[in-house]
Amino acid sequence: MDYITELTEKGGKAKLAARKLATLSTAVKNQALLAMAAALADNQAVIIAANAKDIAQARENGMAKPLVDRLMLDETRIKAIADGLRQIAALPDPVGESISGWLRPNGLKVTKMRVPLGVIGIIYEARPNVTVDAAGLCLKAGNAVILRGGSEAIHSNTAIASILANAAQAAGVPAGAIQLIETTDRLAVTAMLKLNQYLDVIIPRGGAGLIKTVVENSTVPVIETGTGVCHTFVDAAADLTMAQDIAFNAKVSRPGVCNAMETLLVHEKIAPQFLPAMLERYIQAGVEIRGCTQTMTYHTAVKPATEADWAAEFLDLILAVRVVGSLDMALDHIAAYSTRHSEAIVTCDYDNANRFQQEVDAAAVYVNASTRFTDGFEFGFGAEIGISTQKLHARGPMGLPELTSIKYIVNGNGQIR
Amino acid sequence: MDYITELTEKGGKAKLAARKLATLSTAVKNQALLAMAAALADNQAVIIAANAKDIAQARENGMAKPLVDRLMLDETRIKAIADGLRQIAALPDPVGESISGWLRPNGLKVTKMRVPLGVIGIIYEARPNVTVDAAGLCLKAGNAVILRGGSEAIHSNTAIASILANAAQAAGVPAGAIQLIETTDRLAVTAMLKLNQYLDVIIPRGGAGLIKTVVENSTVPVIETGTGVCHTFVDAAADLTMAQDIAFNAKVSRPGVCNAMETLLVHEKIAPQFLPAMLERYIQAGVEIRGCTQTMTYHTAVKPATEADWAAEFLDLILAVRVVGSLDMALDHIAAYSTRHSEAIVTCDYDNANRFQQEVDAAAVYVNASTRFTDGFEFGFGAEIGISTQKLHARGPMGLPELTSIKYIVNGNGQIR
């Protein structure tokens, strides 16, 4: 089947399914999620066999070891992925919530009600667990989903999507609710980005390159996720022990994720007390430091930072460090280089804390905590489809309510205008 | 100045202004709105003189009379436009609202706070009143705005934007908060649609052609407004007098707007009692009827409807009429042809009313009322920047809260992960 035919057929099926999904009961959706979890366990041999083909192919193509590891599925991982579906089943159903309602002077009763978005396209890279997470979250929020994973995981994804779709359908979910694009032709992505007739939204999940391609080429509305050039500003009035723990955690605990810190800003007043020990701790942990000229005076291992370093999302054990003369300079630096993901100040000064949280424009703005907390689970949402770095529709960690829209239900008794 | 230079300069100024606008007090914003209203009145001679140039040009170019009328400004209209700014000043400020907040088990306090979107681009057609409305609404919600009106109104818009920007600035609003693109080069629109570096969102206001161009070419997130192929379904269990009044109002009261009905669906059981008088009333009012074969049996003046008529937004005294065998057939017709703007059922049957409101996917779904009520003022929002027909971010009439985003304010005391 050519990719245009596949996209059109699956788009049409998804749209039909979405009409039925919109009024599907919470009970049926939850039963389906549990059945999907059970089906993954029951079919783990099939999944592992399919995954083995992807792994063999990846090794043949010389894929880097950490990427091969992210692609790999075993019993433990499949169990964890299935447990994720059970957790989604346990979450409250966002659909049908009356968000607000009021009576107009003419007697019209207006109710703002939460409804599914409709058909969601998810475009992602190698990790096959996204196939399950995205299918589960979209289903719980009443949406049909069209999944387009990376070609590296095509055997795993095809096996998983087929198992999930069959289990869901047997539990009463309409056919077409969960579909995977099976062609690995890259042109299918380009065509999917123009599928306005069938898709209500596209959510890309992956690296900066993928997200850029989607944002620049999609005519379907996009929720941009991901890129995080996050800062921590250690103010003159900081508790230096707390500052060191927060700054260390924000960089080192998991450097490859979007909420990890990329640039540390330090007030010049406390730089002499703070930076030497801080830099030594980083360097002991294997962090490469690229600093401004002042930073370089505090440790011999500091390399000079270039303009590009201030804007870089390293996603690695590399940190840019800059000494600034004031809170205003920190705010200006952040305004210039931040991707508006997560920003933190460490301070004991009430006014500085407030100003920072008021003036910094980012999805999450922290006082005295690590930027690493920007996460759907850490925020208490019980799920996460991604972290939005745009301002439209959703910002920050996206849970189930972010996968919904609204409609106005208006009840009258003959009103005309 | 070439358009690239103009866009880049104004984009940069808007972005700087947006940082300051985000923390501007409600008092200053309201004073500025009142000062802008006063300035329009004080400078009405200047505005009318500029408008006269546009009118002369329009007549020279043979613009249709109703369009010339929409372009025309006089003392009465300027007063009404200025009053609109005073109404915006009287509305509550959406910025700074705590939407929700909670404490995490680790002691982190998370607050979801309403903040401005940032920089909004408005692309619109001939009506110069949009210049004032959009500037006022964006300012109140703390956003910088870049306006791009139609070339037909360039003299009026340039005069108005300059008066508004000066008045706002004198009242304490940062420079760059209100800017108009002054070049009439059409390439400026194309370039504006790619201005991701400066614009957070683009809202097109105008005809289907403009909206299509924006949706298909913008890499900046868009809020799609406008197109309404709205239906009214007269159920078998309808009060026929009420149904006639609602169906007449929905088509005839203002046929040129997006919430006007374009297709009337009638249950076949009541078609013999309902349609002859209804069709006669429409025809007396000058409405051209394009009907299905059954409809044609009820009045000799009915012309045959084509497939294209079911999908048409006539925006005129033309109505498509179809007799359907059941509520399900009505729901299928609406699912196939609706633009998901506003849909109505007239019925006394409780279950049919509920099913219609549950199953129809549209921004506003009515029982026993005219679709003409889909409007920010009629919904009680006190303002309207447009009516969204997409599902992302905003759906239906958009007031001030729809011109905002959120950020998470997170307060800790040393939490690390």
Automatic annotation (TrEMBL), chains A, B:
NCBIfam families for the chain: PRK00197.1 (NF001221), proA (TIGR00407)
What sequence ranges are listed for the domain Aldehyde dehydrogenase? 14-284
Q: What does this protein do?
A: Catalyzes the NADPH-dependent reduction of L-glutamate 5-phosphate into L-glutamate 5-semialdehyde and phosphate. The product spontaneously undergoes cyclization to form 1-pyrroline-5-carboxylate.
Protein family membership: Belongs to the gamma-glutamyl phosphate reductase family.
Pathway assigned to this chain's UniProt record: Amino-acid biosynthesis; L-proline biosynthesis; L-glutamate 5-semialdehyde from L-glutamate: step 2/2
Localisation:
Cytoplasm
HAMAP family xref list? ProA
The primary gene name is: proA_1
Q: Which UniProt keywords apply?
A: Amino-acid biosynthesis, Cytoplasm, NADP, Oxidoreductase, Proline biosynthesis
UniProt-listed Gene3D superfamilies: Aldehyde Dehydrogenase, Chain A, domain 1 (3.40.605.10), Aldehyde Dehydrogenase, Chain A, domain 2 (3.40.309.10)
Xref: PANTHER family: DELTA-1-PYRROLINE-5-CARBOXYLATE SYNTHASE, GLUTAMATE SEMIALDEHYDE DEHYDROGENASE
Q: Which N-terminal stretch is annotated as signal sequence?
A: none
Question: What EC number(s) does the entry state?
Answer: 1.2.1.41
| Principal subcellular localisation of the protein | cytoplasm
State the reactions this protein catalyses. L-glutamate 5-semialdehyde + phosphate + NADP(+) = L-glutamyl 5-phosphate + NADPH + H(+)
Name of the protein: Gamma-glutamyl phosphate reductase
Matching Pfam families, A to Z?
Aldedh (PF00171)
Domain of life according to the entry: Bacteria
The UniProt GO MF terms for this protein read: glutamate-5-semialdehyde dehydrogenase activity
